[in-house]
Amino acid sequence: MSTLTLSQSKPVDRPQIKEKYDHFIGGKWVAPSSGEYFDNISPIDGKAFSKAARGNKADIEKALDAAHKAFATWSKTSAAERSRVLNKIADIIEENLEMLARVETIDNGKALRETRAADLPLCIDHFRYFAGVIRADESSISEHDETTVSIALHEPLGVVGQIIPWNFPLLMATWKIAPALAAGCCTVVKPAEQTPTSIMVLMELIADVLPPGVLNVVTGFGPEAGKPLATSDRVAKVAFTGETTTGRLIMQYASENLIPVTMELGGKSPNIFMKSVGDADDEFFDKAVEGAVMFALNQGEVCTCPSRILVHEDIYDKFMERVVARTKAIKMGHPLAEDTMMGAQASNDQFEKILSYLDIGKQEGAQVLCGGDKASLNSGLETGYYIQPTIFKGHNKMRIFQEEIFGPVTSVTTFKTTEEAIAIANDTMYGLGAGLWSRDAHELYQVPRAIQAGRVWVNCYHAYPAHAPFGGYKKSGFGRENHLMMLNHYRQTKNMLISYSKNKLGFF
Amino acid sequence: MSDKKYIPRVILSEAAIDTIDTLRKRFGTDLMFHQSGGCCDGSSPMCFEKGDFKVGGSDIWIGKVYGCDFFMNKDQFEYWKHTQLTLDITQGRGSSFSIEIPMGIRFIIRSRVFTMEELENLEPTMTGEEMMENNLL
C-alpha cells in the first residue's frame, strides 16, 4: 500500500535483565508456590528475554498476609512519612530513568523515544504529585450548631488489589500504586502477563524504601493469579484497567464481597476537527495535523487512542492530505533505536487481532488511505509484531469505528454541521477520551461540554499530566485517576458527630 | 434454537474445537464465551467455565459454538450484527481471566460481512435474561 519510512539507527545496548524474577512479597523475593515460571516474550523480536513467576492462589494469599500485617503500621504512618517515601521512589526512578526506559521498551515493544520522554517522566511526576497532595490534604469539620460538631476524617480502606494492564506497564502501575500508598492503603499488584518484568526491575530498586508488605507484586496469569486476588474477601477494593468483560467479572466478584471497585475500560475516542482549523496554513494547522496523527502514539495501544477522526467536509482534502503524509513519515524500526517513532505491538495475539480488524475494515468497504497491513521489518525484527500505521475512510456504523482495535489504526469520516459532529462523536458505547480542535472560542467550550466523555482534550491530545482527572463516562468505567480525587477511591470517611452540650435531650 | 435453516452468527475453527476439548477435560465442565469490548485485551472473546460469568438482560445470546453459549453485550451487538464471527485460536500471551491464557494461546474472532441474502435468514437471538427464564442456560 505504501512505502514504509524506516529507522536507520542502531539499537542502544540492552540493560542487564535477570533470567527470572520471583514474586515480591513482604519486602522479599519469594519463589512461586508452584515452582513454575513462564517466559516473557519481547515484542521486539518475539523472543523470550526473561521469566516471570507463575503465581497462584497460595501466592496471592501470602501477599495478602504480608499486606494485612503491614497495614497495621502503614495506615497510621504520618502523611509526612508517606510523602517522603513516595518522593524517594520518584527520585530513584529519576536516577534510573534510562535503564528503566530501556527495560520498558524491551518488555512492551514501544519505542525508546516514548519510554524516555513519556512513560518514565510521567511515573516520576505522578509519585511526586501524590507525595505533594497528601501534605496539603485536609479533612473537614462543620459546626452544626454551637454545641454540635461533625468531623469528617479520612481513613484508608485497607488492603487493596490492583490489576495492571500491559500498554504502559510502569505508568499504569504508578497511577494505581501512588494514590493507594498515599492514602495509607497497602496493595497487592498483579501486572499483566505480557509485561511482568519492568515492574520487578523497579521493585529491585525500591525494595528497601518501603516497609515490608506495603507494596507486593505477584505475577502470573489472569485465571490463576488475577482471579484469586479479585475474588478474595480480604481485599477492601479492586482497581482494574482493561476490557469490559473482565471489568464486569471483577464487579461481579466485588458484589459478592460488597467492596468498591474502580474501572478504566477503554474507549473509541473521537478527534474532531472543526472547519476553522483550515482557516490558515499556520503553526496551529500543523499542530492539528499532528493531533490527528497521535493515533500512532504507543502503537495505538492507548485506551484513549484517537481512533476516530471527524473532520469538517470543507477541509477534508486539505487536512487529510497532510495527515496521511505525516503518517507515512512515521519511522518504524527497532524499538531501541533512538530515532524509531513507532515500535512493536505488545504481543502476537494483539498483532493478530489488529490484522483481523484491518481485514474486516476492508470487507466493510472502508477505503485504506495509508498502511493497511503488517510491517515486515528485517535485521532481526522479522519475528516481532509490527503493524503499519493505518488510516481508513468510512462511516461511523462500521465496526472499525466502533471497536477498540488497540493498534495504530484510525478511521476518518466527515461531518457538515456541529450538531452532526457531536452526534457522531457520541454514537459509541464508550466515553473515555475525545479531542476538539477549533479556532472558534464558542466551539472550544460548547462542543467539549456536549461530548459524553470524561476527558476532552481541547486543541491538544494525549497529554496525561498528574493534576488533571482522568476517567470514563458510559461503558468506559468510573473513578478518576491522575488527580487527588483518586485518594477518596482509596479511603473511607469516618464521621465523628460530637456533642459539646451538657444538657440531656429530654426524651427519656 | 439451532434450526438448520438458519445461518449461524458464530462458527468456529478446528483449532478452536481442539482447544475447547482440552479445556473441557481440564476443567471437567461446560464452557461459555462472552465477547469483550474496550481496551487492552478487549475486542476478544473470553472463555469461562459455564455460569462463571453472570449474563443478564444486557447480554445477547448469539448462538452456540460446539456446545458453548456465546454472548455479547447488547450495545456492542448493534454494531456487530451484520457480521459472521469465527472463533479461532492464535498463538500469543494474552491477559484477562479467559481460561485458555495459561496455555499460551488466545481465542480470537475473525469476521465476515453477511450477504444481503444471509441477513434475511439469521439465527434468532435472545437476551441472557430470556435464556434464564426459559431454562436454556
TrEMBL record, chain A:
Report which residue ranges the record marks as coiled coil: none
Active-site residues, as the UniProt record annotates them: 264
Domain Aldehyde dehydrogenase residue range list? 29-495
InterPro entries referenced in this protein's UniProt entry, alphabetically = Ald_DH/histidinol_DH, Ald_DH_C, Ald_DH_CS_CYS, Ald_DH_CS_GLU, Ald_DH_N, Aldehyde_DH_dom
Alphabetized Pfam families for the sequence:
Aldedh
GO MF entries: aldehyde dehydrogenase [NAD(P)+] activity
Q: Which SUPFAM superfamilies match?
A: ALDH-like (SSF53720)
Q: Which Gene3D superfamilies match?
A: Aldehyde Dehydrogenase, Chain A, domain 1, Aldehyde Dehydrogenase, Chain A, domain 2
- KW Oxidoreductase (keyword) present: yes
Q: Would the keyword Iron be found if you checked this record's keyword annotation?
A: no
What is the top-level taxon of the source organism?
Answer: Bacteria
What UniProt keywords are attached to this protein's entry?
Oxidoreductase
Q: Which family does this protein fall into? A: Belongs to the aldehyde dehydrogenase family.
Q: Can you say what this protein is called?
A: Aldehyde dehydrogenase
Natural source organism: Belliella pelovolcani
TrEMBL record, chain B:
Concerning InterPro entries, the annotation shows:
DUF779
- Family annotation (Pfam families): DUF779 (PF05610)
The protein depicted here goes by the name: UDP-glucose 4-epimerase
**Organism, as annotated:** Belliella pelovolcani
